[in-house]
Specification:
mainly alpha, three-stranded antiparallel β-sheet, rod-shaped
Length: about 180
């Protein structure tokens, strides 16, 4: 059998203290390295998650904006068609032969037009005015429309549609349509 020889170097110690010290140092370094790598992974995941959330948020906002613009265009188109149809209806009323008859007083003309318009639920009231701005509402009451924007437009031969307005007398959003006769 062969003989084995033990060779000691200056780094080796017979009691194993240095070996134990190196082992604990390696374990401590390994733990630090794992902690650093774990922190880097967590930071990478958080940063990527944040970018992903921002990208999704931006995508959802763009899609919502597109849908809202499409809906707004559809509603605007519908309102244009409804306004055109309403003007055609009011124009038919305005060209009624009774309105051109000078022997009928304006208060009576206002009542006649209102009776004709009563078939349309969208019409809430009518003001029949002469060129001096004196008008009559459907109840026969006399009003002045001389300083009203809608009267000026109709008196100059133009159609007029107001912005949506809430009138206190009816507490409903309404529009003012003016048509020259």
């Amino acid at each position: 059998m062969g003989r084995y020889r033990t060779i000691y170097t200056e780094n080796q110690n017979s009691d194993g203290y240095e070996a134990e010290k190196n082992k604990t140092e390696k374990i401590r370094l390994r733990r630090k390295l794992m902690a650093i790598v774990s922190c880097m992974l967590i930071m990478g995941i958080v940063v990527q998650g944040r970018f992903a959330v921002k990208a999704v948020k931006r995508m959802v906002c763009e899609q919502a904006e597109t849908v809202l613009v499409d809906k707004a265009e559809a509603v605007a188109d519908m309102l244009d068609k409804e306004t055109t149809a309403f003007f055609q209806y009011v124009e038919v009323l305005a060209h009624s032969p009774v309105l051109n008859d000078r022997s009928i007083p304006n208060s009576k003309k206002a009542k006649i037009v209102y009776e004709q318009a009563a078939f349309n639920d969208a019409i809430r009231g009518i003001v029949f005015c002469d060129m001096d701005g004196h008008g009559f509402i459907n109840s026969g009451e006399r009003v002045s429309a001389l300083n009203e924007e809608w009267f000026s437009a109709a008196a100059s031969g133009k159609y007029f549609v107001s912005e949506p307005t809430v009138f206190s007398s009816i507490d409903t959003v309404s529009f003012i349509f003016a048509v020259p006769i």
